[in-house]
Amino acid sequence: MSSQSTKRKPRSPLAVEQVGRVPQQGRSKASYERMFAAARTLMLERGDEEFTLIEVSQRGNVSIGSIYLRFESKDNLVRAVICEALEEIVSAEEAMFERLADEARDLGEFVPRYVNDYAEVLRVNAPLLRLAMRRAAFDPLISAPGKQVADRSAAGANRAMLRFSAEIGGDAALKADSVYHIIFATLARELSLGSTAESARNYDWEPLKRELARMCLAYLRQQP
Amino acid sequence: MSSQSTKRKPRSPLAVEQVGRVPQQGRSKASYERMFAAARTLMLERGDEEFTLIEVSQRGNVSIGSIYLRFESKDNLVRAVICEALEEIVSAEEAMFERLADEARDLGEFVPRYVNDYAEVLRVNAPLLRLAMRRAAFDPLISAPGKQVADRSAAGANRAMLRFSAEIGGDAALKADSVYHIIFATLARELSLGSTAESARNYDWEPLKRELARMCLAYLRQQP
Amino acid sequence: MSSQSTKRKPRSPLAVEQVGRVPQQGRSKASYERMFAAARTLMLERGDEEFTLIEVSQRGNVSIGSIYLRFESKDNLVRAVICEALEEIVSAEEAMFERLADEARDLGEFVPRYVNDYAEVLRVNAPLLRLAMRRAAFDPLISAPGKQVADRSAAGANRAMLRFSAEIGGDAALKADSVYHIIFATLARELSLGSTAESARNYDWEPLKRELARMCLAYLRQQP
Amino acid sequence: MSSQSTKRKPRSPLAVEQVGRVPQQGRSKASYERMFAAARTLMLERGDEEFTLIEVSQRGNVSIGSIYLRFESKDNLVRAVICEALEEIVSAEEAMFERLADEARDLGEFVPRYVNDYAEVLRVNAPLLRLAMRRAAFDPLISAPGKQVADRSAAGANRAMLRFSAEIGGDAALKADSVYHIIFATLARELSLGSTAESARNYDWEPLKRELARMCLAYLRQQP
DNA sequence: TATGAATGAGTATTCATTCAT
DNA sequence: GATGAATGAATACTCATTCAT
């Protein structure tokens, strides 16, 4: 009703906000940003738990107490960093789907572009996404929003593909869903989302994406 | 086949041996087995580092000192357990390929069976494989043998598929390799071999395998 | 009796006032009351130090700074609450002695009534009295007024008993003083005023009071 | 049956032993003694929790880890010290009762001696007994053995008095029990067992004991 | 060989108090 | 007067590794 609800974009489509309150005022905000950034940097350098609050305090130039003023625990600080990354991914995907909707006129155009663009979204966010997935394995406060992100992703991809259902032979919904899973699994693996053994991939990234798209297209178009 | 296989049983096709010496004699061997088994059990219960050498000592009924006599460090003990699991996987895969060679007469028979059987091999070994992949992300002494296992796996799959290269349209080698990667990625993801966020998968396992096989077949058979 | 009692209501017969200034005006006073009440409640719930000024600030709806404006420290806030309780005890005892003076006509009437009524006064104030005694063990700012309360108590009891000195055999003053000490010690113990090990007393309260009175009477009346 | 059960005095009549294992061998034992003594000293200097494990480690010349080898936690270390004190009190009381049994021929001899001797037992052990009683207020692992000690004490005193029941007028058992409670309460209070406000007692100790004994005797002998 | 007691560095968290606004 | 965000010192506990016996 008020101006509030009309102007603002709905912050966080994820149920993620509860972890750490963002202060709104100037100095406060700045100190919040510093500790958040310090934590983020350290997490990227070392892994999601391999850092000390003392380090955050020193790098971020904030007192230990300040950290506890915003985040109830080290865990919550870690979660906040991860959740922010999840939100960024959601935004990036949304932008990607909008772009694809304009550009792709048929399945043959859509699939390769989707594979490429989605790969790019994941690649850009891979470092924190890796931490997110690792942590989701044991932390429900990460697996829940993580699941949301994954579901959105799947839903977006399915919706996009089903715009071309006329081109799809057989059970279009089933095929689209399978395609999404296989694409995500392949890209995730290539980006070592899930910390794989062969992290230093020597298999070529570009050919894989191309063949992956071909495979999906062949499958989608195939009549039963 | 090689001279290697005639003289002694081919212990560890992997370059893994440096990690912990297996004593050949009775009492020593028994105590080695006990500490190894205790560590393996604890790793499966809690994760690859979430146990204490004291716990190994108690459960395995061996002294702390004994453990250090066989394994230079806790890390090496963990590595030994993981490497043994990798070897088991290699064996299981070899058995699988032999079986498939007898049973599958054409690509249409081979691909679905391979997907199924490989899925089973991975599923059975998933718990330790998960630990292996997690650890490989930061421990070169695991990522190296892990890479070997992966390469063997890929090579085996490629070789098997190329027996039917006549049925494959276009660049058979490229396609086979792509297929292998995509199958592995999809199965690995489904088994959470990389600790994914959506660990409690609600997507159906059986349909995915079926569609995965269809996709691969459609792709392989497709003429350029 | 004295000039003191005519001009103003005898606020605090104890040398306790230094601890926290009570503001006289409306809003200020109200906020003082709220923080005081919040502290008192928390102390009764958790013990005299087991609460946080942040909790006082939240429950009492006052800012941390306000608390420091009235009380120089957390310790002083605690002291203020305890001292108020001591004053209440003094009032209750004075009322009790006035009542007893009217009702008790001889030693045989006085002693049992005194034991009963004093027990009641202590019982009602036991929760904060317990905190007072605990703290007096190490805080001179509590032990001093605590001593005053105890001395008043002893003096009142002695004075009352000595009204019946004709009935007392031998050194009436010594006997009265001894009786007071023994009565207080026994009641205090029974009320766990001093945090005793056997806090859940199973010994019966009523018989003890009766026998305690008998013991005191037998002693007081006994000729040397 | 074995020599074990005949030679050894039954260690710890209290169910207290579970808190911290006493090592039996030389060097181990010595280090145990050092950390125990250091903790005891610190507790007497500062109170039962007002010390740091680092201090124990330094004063006792043992590593922090060693402390945790014997005591699972700081709390358990504190408990062990307190429990040992409780056991000493039990021994001292037993010795006292044996002595009194030989010396006291009638109630008139027994009561004053008992008051004196019991006062001495409590006085000697007062410092740790104070800590014991304080802690018993919130720690069941102390209140339980504390209750045992108190019950033994009461039972011993009752038994001793009832040897002279012929001299006691009326309900001897009730009177004896009342006398015990009142004596203990009075002595405990005088020794500030329970951290009293007037810790620096100026009332005379000796007269109180004398009058306390008189009071009890007058009461016990009084015919109903 | 085998033992297992001893070591001690390393870290998340709390909360009374201050002081810029 | 009033506020409440910021401070930072202080402390129990873990566990891989060593080495005297």
Automatic annotation (TrEMBL), chains A, B, C, D:
Ranges of biased composition (kind: Basic residues): 1-11
Record's keyword terms, sorted = DNA-binding, Transcription, Transcription regulation
Query: Where's the DNA-binding part?
Result: 52-71
UniProt cross-references to SUPFAM superfamilies, sorted A to Z: Homeodomain-like
Residue ranges constituting the HTH tetR-type domain according to the UniProt record: 29-89
Q: Which domain of life is it from?
A: Bacteria
Region described as Disordered: spans on this chain: 1-27
For molecular function, the Gene Ontology terms on record are: DNA-binding transcription factor activity; transcription cis-regulatory region binding
What name does UniProt use for this protein?
TetR/AcrR family transcriptional regulator
Q: Give the originating organism.
A: Sphingomonas pokkalii
